[in-house]
Specification:
The protein is 45% helix and 15% strand. It is α/β, with parallel strands linked by helices. It has one domain (8-246): NAD(P)-binding Rossmann-like Domain (Rossmann fold). A 7-stranded parallel β-sheet has the order 3-2-1-4-5-6-7, sandwiched between helices.
Length: 254
Amino acid sequence: MLRLKDKIAIVTGGGAGIGKAVASSFAHEGARVLIAEIDPVRGESAAHEIRGLGGEVAFVPTDVSNLHDVQAMVNIAVKRFGGLDVLINNAAIQMHGRDARAHELSEETWDRTMSINLRGTWLCSKYAIPEMLTRGGGSIINIASPTGLTGCAPTYTAYSTSKGGVIALTRIMAIDYARDKIRVNAIVPGTTDTPMISTLLEDSETRAKLVAKAPLGRLGTGEDVAPLAVFLASDESGYCTGGLYLVDGGMLTA
């Protein structure tokens, strides 16, 4: 039985990494998926790959910090597929080499990080929620980070703060929309081998240190996160809202 049969989902940042793995898993489970991705090459490539496996998928170029892009993203999903049931707020940036301690951090780096990671999550939710209300409910899944919970990423002030904001936004939306049957949860991946941190992982010493932080002894992958996203998008998680779900290899318990 397909766990997401007849559901319509948007996955932001769906062209690579966690987003691509989630989009692929959703399509495999019967969902119709709109990949929203700022990089047109990645977005179209991911859509083509999923389509080749028999999935029903579309791609729309989207900057989640841009109001008009977000409105268009939601409108295209509704027009093409007939509604919206699931939103995965996955799009994010981590500005390596520019994020810094608070007094050393530039306004540009702070503003850009917040605009994608926090404003983007809010904007996408803002325009997705009315469509979910018309369908009598839905599921919003935000991709958070351990950096929003602990001081585990020294010097990454903007990124850590933005992800802390995502966690707070998750909790308040969960309360605000519970009676509307819109569930809002967050997945908290540990260090995950994705293009977002590929430059860091090129350094063998840095990679070894990041692996050592996970008691399970390896970095995570998008495929580690995708099954949990499927669960939270499905009716199986109908009593789950406001939750933070760790996929971190045990990092936060070490």
